[in-house]
Amino acid sequence: MTMKDAVSHIEAHGTKSQQQDIRKARTAFVIHGIEGPDFDIFPAILTEYEKAVPKLHGSMPALQALVNAAGVSNESYKQFQRAGRRLIEAVTGAQAEKAERKNRDDEWAVLLRQVDLLVTAGLVAAQDRVAMTALVDTCRAADVDPAILTLDQAENWISTTHVAQRKSLRKGLKVLDNLRGFDRLRPLLPPRPVTPGSRPASRLTTLPEPLQRAINTWVDVAARTQVKDPGYAHLAEPLSESTRAGYSAATSLYVKTLLDLYPGLSNETDLSRLFTEDQVDCVLAAWGRNEAHKARTMASYAADLGALLQRNGLTEAGSYVTGLIAVLPHLVEGRFAGNAMGPKVKRWCETLLRDPQKTNLFQIQHVEYYRRALETLAAAKRNGHDLPHLSPPEVLATLSETERGAVKKALRTARMFGVIAAYSAIALEGAPFRRQNMLSMRHTGPSKTMFLHLTGRSPHVIIKFPNAELKNGKFLSERGEEMEAITIEKRGPGDHAVEIIRFYLTAIRPLFPEADKTHAFFPPLGTASSNNSGFAKETFYTWLAEASAEIGLPMNSHNFRHGYCSIDINEGRRSMEDLAKVLGDTVAVVQRNYAWVNAKQSVLNVQRDTARRRAEILKARGAVT
């Protein structure tokens, strides 16, 4: 059944409420670019719908930016998304099945009635009762009563269900375990706790123990610097933990896939016997059929696997795996996936370059955020709210509910625009450093990366990251290079970064309750767990999505880097060699990501020159005739 079929069915037989869901669902689809014929042929399948029109929850900056760009509030989007889900459930029978499960008089019903009594008595929170809804429905669909629910079943559901449902299931399982504190409920509950650990077990630990030990041994050999002369092998240095993890993940996935395909091999204890050409063919082909595996990751795993085999003496098997990377389509795709800018990012940059207003706004956005932060502080002062005094949680708690709500809103807005103003000022008038480096900058303490010189006749700021903190720091060190220090100062009337940084330090940073407990320029919003604790990336994503949408330029943190480079290259301001120095990348990386900008500009130059010559020809012909 397609969405066109679903709409036709509801228009003919649905209730008034269901017919209203049609309009809301169409809006949800349009936000994701699915309309007209694309909407008509879209399959009315819940799993496909949730992939294309995902539920908005928690920190989802890309989705929030998309929603805000459509001029829709987060709450409205949630309503539209739920309407689409209800529409599909209604025509597929899922809604009726859910209603039947909800009304069952079974062991879950007995337990829920007891929980309702505890809620009435104030012994269980009402929200905990609500949190059980998704878990109860899942168990009923699987015909699993509470007394026979096991941790294995719970972990299986968590690992296989759609990401939007995992959080709900975890909450329900946690509530179920908490009910074990009531003696009279224990006979109705699972015999043992059923809440999965916060982190799922690694794939390696799911394999037979002999193979686990063999993989660890192989990784120990492979994840070391390679020494040609065997006599010096004992001097080989171990590689980083991330490199070791990559080798382990690749080999574990290979073995796990092979054992799934051939269960009879589960008793094999010799790892070297699991890499015949036929076995390698089957496993790598299976990776390509699994949509959950990204092509780029699979190509990386195959490369790691080939290196690991060769370094452990299976030269032929290693060469065979490496050769498949250039043959199997999904591995070829993955190998080249990192060689150019992704299509979504490229579309964003193209849109930016096509719109002169957005191009200009991108370059002065920090001033827009700065203005809004100033306006927020001024409004709070007019309302009699001393934000620096009221920002500590213990002071906020003394206010009336109404006043506390107003102050919290003002604090959030001031902090948000202040942080984004300072961040973007550094990115645009300094350099578009990577997000992880920006949020971890330290302006005090023994390991400063930000050096403030804000007094005197020439106030300025210097930012210098050691190679150890850079994503590509290892490669810079291998080349004997360092990322250039960046100086931010007022070089013209349009420069405001120093002014904004000074404002942030004096008026915004003190609004963070534990700012004095960390050296980080951007302190955490909550507790500073160490003296270098920085701002949480999840909150930053949300704030940037909201703030940028408000000024009419929805973007994420990666867009600073891409927009900065695209505009400079498009307008011929800087060479790729200059940009490579600013970014701390190689010229090859910059060319790989932004060569398309030059290509488009070259085509445009040819078209303009052709148009000029055409005009001259027509003018001359007119003069003759």
Q: What would you note in describing this structure?
A:
It is a single chain. With 625 residues, this protein is mainly alpha-helical. 62% of the residues lie in helices and 2% in strands. The protein contains 30 helices and three strands. The chain has helices spanning 3-13, 16-31, 37-41, 46-52, 61-69, 74-92, 94-102, 107-120, 126-131, 133-141, 151-160, 163-178, 209-222, 241-261, 277-289, 295-311, 315-324, 329-337, 343-354, 356-382, 387-390, 393-396, 401-429, 435-439, 473-478, 497-508, 537-550, 557-570, 576-583, 587-624, and strands at residues 450-453, 460-463, 486-489. It has a three-stranded antiparallel β-sheet, with no helix packed on it. Strand 1 and strand 2 (460-463) form a beta hairpin. Helix 13 crosses helix 16 (295-311), helix 23 (401-429) packs antiparallel against helix 26 (497-508) and helix 29 packs antiparallel against helix 30. The longest helix is centred in the last third of the chain and has 38 residues, at 587-624. It is globular and about 80 Å long. It starts with a helix and ends with a helix. The mean pLDDT is 85.
